[in-house]
Amino acid sequence: MKIRLKRTQTRSCTLSSPNINSTMLGKRPSRWKRFMNVATILTLKANPVLFAVIMGTGSISNLFVAFPYGNHSRGMMIASLALFFLNLTLFCLFAAFSLAKYTLYPESWRSLTFNPVTSLFLGTFPMGITTLINVSVEVINRYFGVGGKDFLYFIWSIWWIDVFISVLCCWAGVHAMIVRQQHSMSTMGAAWLLPVVTLIVASSSGGVIANYLQEYSTGHALNTLVFSAFLVTVGLTLALMILTLYLGRLIIHGLPPGVGVLSVFLPLGPTGQAGYSIFLLGQNFKRILPYHNAGSSAFLGASATGEVLYVVCTCAAFILWSLATMWMLFALLALKSTVLKSTVAFKMSFWGLVFPNGVYANLTIVLGNAFDSRGLRIYGAAYAVVVICVWLSIAIRSILALKDLIDPHNQVFEEAKGNRQTTMLSEHPSAGTSETEIAIERGEHHA
By the 8 A CB rule, do 366 and 279 touch? Predict the structure, then answer.
């Protein structure tokens, strides 16, 4: 609760204390000082959850590419490109602030790895990169013809780096959950999915790149597809295990409290994106196989292999779409039971709504094209429009909240003036992970 002092009281306080900020004396700080204050605050606020913004915005950019009506029209591609550059700018800013925070305050990195909530969101970093990769390939390289072969291979190299980070987030993240953190079923949240979904999202980008890479090298495209198949197999297997636990947690302990109920939408991410990734794998295997340099491999050299894999992958994609639809209906019922009955304050966790719903809409559109289903195309397009509206409303609310975030009179500004110890993340993280709503709101710092 903020206490407003009368002007006479403020004047008496400023005269008696030499350390009072110059703004209280009526002097306007220089632009450079204001800039440094804001930069310091944003650095202290840097949190892995910020990259959920990149994931959400990237999924919207991809929806403009996949939208079934006006598909690949110049207007759609320009809209996708505009969102790409916005997303790239935000990614660079968030990465710079995060790098500065963990470089200046290395203790905060150690605290982050022990935190059972915030550490889960480290996976949003590589997943944000994959959304940038997809648009770079489909819009910049293929539609606008920028860079040709060299640019495509540059993106391919970035993808391998992203794969390495995703693998690290998955194995190291799950290992840290086992040996370094404390978790319990009663406080379990769908955010447990985040470390393992990194593999699924990376595999989908591999399918996008391989689709165009085979034009230059069938061998490189096949290697990309095989490794992508490995990634999505491991990621989906772990995700389904966690989803089973999560459903049991919901049945036994009920819905997460407050805004945490929004995490019920997170299962749409692994199911929807895995379906999209597997569909791309089947589509690409159909084009590449039989592989003429298969050597003694009867599997790769058989003429029917590609067709069979395409049919199997398409069926698997539809099964995963059905599973995602089930979770979507559960999530809507959860909203009806909780959020719609009470006012929920805006928090950064709202961004977690965009990506899962975006990839679900994308898979719906892709299957509509595969089955030549008018109903699926209409449903996918309508769902995509709803997701775009959700993204727009959350983005506007985030911009409006930015003023409170950089308010020089809030607690974080006081920390920025030199109290280094208070800027560290808590060395005693909470025991549970149900509070997935990592919030940056009105001067509060949830790390």
Answer: yes
Three-state SS for 286-325 is HHHCCCCCCCCCHHHHCCCHHHHHHHHHHHHHHHHHHHHH
Contacts of residue 238, defined as CB under 8 A and 6 or more positions apart, other chains included, come to: 170, 174, 196, 199
DSSP state of 138: I
Q: Which two tokens stand for residue 173?
A: 């993240």
Interatomic CA distance for residues 437 and 118, integer angstroms: 10
pLDDT digits (tens, 9 = 90+) for 196-242: 999 999 999 999 999 999 999 999 999 999 999 999 999 999 999 99
SS3 17: coil
Give the pLDDT score at 27.
Answer: 55
All structural domains of the chain: 48-423 (1.50.10.150)
Rounded to 5°, the CA angle 124-163-60 comes to: 45
How is residue 214 annotated by DSSP? T
**pLDDT tens figures, 69-110:** 988 889 999 999 999 999 999 999 999 999 988 888 888 888
**pLDDT over 70 percentage in the chain:** 81
User: Cα–Cα distance between 100 and 375 in angstroms, integer?
Assistant: 49
The H or E element spanning position 107 is: helix 106-114
Amino acid at 139: V
CA pair distance 86, 262, nearest whole angstrom? 25
Indicate whether 310 pLDDT > 90: yes
Phi, psi of 124 (to 5 degrees): -70, -20
